[in-house]
Amino acid sequence: MTAKVVNRKASRFLFCVVVIFTVFSPSVHVCSAVDKAAADEALGLAEEDLRSAFISVREAEEVGAGVEGLLLKLEISGEALAQAYSAYIRSDFESACTFATSSSGGLTGVIDEAQMLKIDAEKAFSERLFWTAGISSICLCVLLVASLLGWRLVKGRFIKQVLKSRPELVKSNESG
Amino acid sequence: MLGLVVLSPTLIMVLELPGGERFTEFWILGPGLMAQDYPYNVSEGSVHRIHLCVANHLGDLQYYLIYLKFRNETEAPSKAEDGTPSPLPPLSEYRVFLEDGQNKTEEIDMSFSGITFEADTCTVQSVSIGDQKVSLDKTATWNEELSGYYFQLFFELWSYNVSSNDFSFHNRTVWLWLNMTGRI
């Protein structure tokens, strides 16, 4: 009785393992028994991943986002990809594939993070621009009003001076 | 005039002012990070250290690809003057990401093995760059004028072009002449 239960459990476990392996094996990047074609494919994918990640990071950097952390990830992935190519040159296709997969793996989430940083930087820039432009406009208005008032004041004083000086001129003319 | 002064913080944020000259620096330093003591006379197994440096002054983030190549005196070099890279395959490569104004120094240790001499030729079987051994199988003939078997180790700088989605030769190359005889 006990042996039958154990056998049943074992067969169920084996069945589960086979099902899990069958379902998930195509989605996992396998690097065992690698030939040149598989290494080529892995290198191509890693190269494309690195380029896409770089473009995203560059876009974020262009709008003023701090991308130091992302650059470090790019550096590490770039180093892994360089090692993959070195292995490929030595015809070590298995290592090439492993390094290429590691390079792609190191870039997980970089594009999303770069896009978030880009949105944050754009938002921060818009806010900064709004406040700077607002303060500048207020200052410009104050400057205009002050200039007008100042001009009126100066003009008034000048007219007063002219009016004060006129009788003296007349007097001097009469005496002459 | 005063109005311009008041508006200048906003104008600085909106207007893009022309920068200085845009270029990339690319150079090699010796073992002590100085422009001296470069490896020249090379013998079997001896380890030579150099430093490869690159600095970005292009105004934005750059993705550089540096190829390390090796040739004898008769093989085609890269020609920076007409923008032609060497057709030789790279032995190794370095990928560098630099923001504007940043620079990077890469430490490179190299040693050559399988150096054999026959009649007036010298053959080098392999080179170790860091911990990677790469097969060379290059032959040089005796240079009467300079008294040696000369090989050139050179680096080509390529940069990633976003619009074409590919790397292009950046017209920068640096090199070292190596005398495999060990004689001057």
In short:
With 176 residues, chain A is mostly helical. Chain A has five helices and no strands. Chain B is mostly beta strands.
Task: Provide an overview of this structure.
By secondary structure, chain A is an all-alpha fold. Chain A contains five helices and no strands. The N and C termini of chain A lie far apart (147 Å). Chain B has a domain of 122 residues: Immunoglobulins (Immunoglobulin-like, Sandwich), CATH 2.60.40. In chain B, strands 1-2-5-6-7 form a five-stranded antiparallel beta sheet, with no helix packed on it. Chain B has a four-stranded antiparallel beta sheet with strand order 4-3-8-9, with no helix packed on it. At the A-B interface, helix 2, helix 3 and helix 5 of A face helix 1, strand 4 and strand 7 of B.
Could you name the key traits of this structure?
heterodimer, A: 176 residues, 2 domains, B: mainly beta, Immunoglobulin-like
- The helix-strand sequence of chain B is HEEEEEEEEE
Largest sheet of chain B: 5 strands, antiparallel
Structural class of chain A: mainly alpha
Could you name the ranges of chain A where pLDDT drops below 50 across 5 or more consecutive residues? Answer: 21-30
Q: What is the number of independent domains of chain A?
A: 2
> Which structural class matches the secondary elements of chain B?
mainly beta
CATH class of the domain at 19-109 and 149-179 in chain B equals: Mainly Beta
Span between N and C termini of chain A? 147 Å
How many individual β-strands of chain A?
0
Q: Give me the CATH superfamily of the domain at 19-109 and 149-179 in chain B.
A: Immunoglobulins
State the oligomer. heterodimer
Radius of gyration of chain A: 39 Å
- The amount of helix of chain A comes to over 70%
Q: Which two chains touch over the largest interface?
A: A-B, 31 and 28 residues
Radius of gyration of chain B: 21 Å
Low-confidence stretches of chain B: none
- Helix count, DSSP H or I runs of 4 or more residues of chain A: 5
